[in-house]
Amino acid sequence: MCNYEANIWSEPTEPETLDINTAAVAGTVTMGIGYAQLEELCAAMNVPCMSEPTYVEYRENLIDDFNKTAMKNMKMTGEVEKHLALERNDVINGIPYITVVADGSWMKRSYGNAYNSLSSIEAIIGYHTKKILFVGVRNKFCAICDVAERNGIEPKAHKCYKNFDRNASSIRMESDVIAEGFKCSLEMHGLIFKTVIADGDSSVYQTILDNRPYCEHMVAVKK
Description:
Number of helices: 7
Pfam family, one: Mutator
Oligomer: single chain
Number of strands: 5
Protein name: Mutator-like transposase domain-containing protein
Structural class: alpha+beta
């Protein structure tokens, strides 16, 4: 025997490289699938799959990291938009103002008659950078809360993503998120969203006007 010993790792050990479990869960999140699909894929490759509780733990940690990264990128976009606005001398009361593009998407298509989607996502994008300044999600449904309600029991402790009235029209989700983005633009970016470019949904623009996000500066949003 040569008395030589070597360590062979089953996954990369470099700190900048994702471990196999984190990479697998990150892949499911970015593809829009879940644990059941990951389990089937691993079975097809004859690869042991992590347990569902382990998957949930990794997913929750990743979601926090995704949120932090998204916020960092949006802040960076805000700084670029602010710099460009100052170069153009687009300033009101010492505050740079910009033009933004706003739009949303629903989990379920309505085709003009059944506005009952359970989820939606909306974004506000800088017109000049074409990058995201604000993003928001609205959910009417939480599986854990729903099961508990149907069984007449208190839901177990969990991170609940339900943040919109189940009985409200889903079309209101878009205007609710976009108005929130306008209301926090000063605190988040130090910017006034003075002009908005959007589709023909007049309720979005009206909701922005009703919320008067820049009333202290005597600025009315235009479209």
